[in-house]
Amino acid sequence: MTTDLEVRSLVDAVTRALRERILRGDLAAGAAVTEKLVAEEFAVARPTAKAAVERLVFDGLLRRQANRTARVPVLTLAEVSDVYFSRILLERAAIEVVAGHGRVPDDARIALGRFDLAFGRGDVSAVVEADVAFHQALVDAAGSPRLSRMYASLMAEFHLCVARVQVLGRLDRTRLAAEHAAVLAAVEEGDAGRASGELTAHITGARDRILAVYAEDS
Questions:
Q1: Are 198 and 183 in contact (CB under 8 A)?
Q2: Averaged over 104-120, what is the pLDDT?
Q3: Is the pLDDT score of 19 beyond 90?
Q4: Run of H or E including 70
């Protein structure tokens, strides 16, 4: 039993490290991630490296065709659009429930504080992490573990959408602060319809900015 726990912990550690490298953009879109290289880089056994790679394949952060090397996905415009389409469906369902409670989750406010600090110091990775944490907190507040798991999995792909583009210079800090505040104000007032509308407008605007960058790079 002890050995199993130690192995599992090691797989978790390698998985987290690889995940961070992918989401930071250290591993570019299309980059190969072989079990041999992972094993050598982290000084772990091949089975441990394989388990970590397979977890990331399951999460969508790596893709592998039959008998092929796993690679960091190259997302198409259609795939990016679908990520945002799915986000809107899940987040609107959650925000209507949360607004019905009339209380803003503490974790959402904390995430916005981190977002503002990260934006101020120009830390793109931290901005994205805080933004994801804000939206995840709103979804989690709906009280459905299954919905939260689905959303967390989707947001792994969202990270891929922004990992390949430098979006910070294209964002209006004041505008984003106003959008976030409008969502939270509607939640606090218990206005589910307005909360859903504000959230949809916020995500749609983010989608359009990302798609514009992808279109330029295509």
A1: yes
A2: 92
A3: no
A4: strand 70-71
Residues spanned by the domain of 180: 77-217
Measured between alpha carbons, how far is residue 182 from residues 100, 113, 133, 141, 189 in Å? Answer: 16, 15, 17, 18, 11
66 and 87, same domain (yes or no):
no
How far is the C-alpha of 192 from the C-alpha of 188, rounded, in Å? Answer: 10
Report which residue type is found at 104.
V
Supply the DSSP string of 71-110, one letter for each residue.
E-----HHHHHHHHHHHHHHHHHHHHHHHHHT---HHHHH
CA distances from 184 to 37, 89, 105, 108, 199 (A): 45, 18, 9, 9, 9
The reply to whether 85 and 62 lie within a common domain is no
Please say if the pLDDT value at position 77 is more than 70.
yes
Phi, psi at residue 53, to the nearest 5°?
Answer: -65, -45
The number of folded domains in the chain is 2
d(CA 89, CA 150): 12
Residue 153 has pLDDT above 90, yes or no: no
Residues in the chain: 218
Q: How far apart are CA 190 and CA 101, in angstroms?
A: 7
pLDDT(4) > 80: no
Residue 60's pLDDT band, with cuts at 50, 70 and 90, is confident
Q: How confident is residue 126, by pLDDT bands cut at 50, 70 and 90? A: confident
Burial of 168 (0-12, 13-18, 19+ CB in 10 A): middle
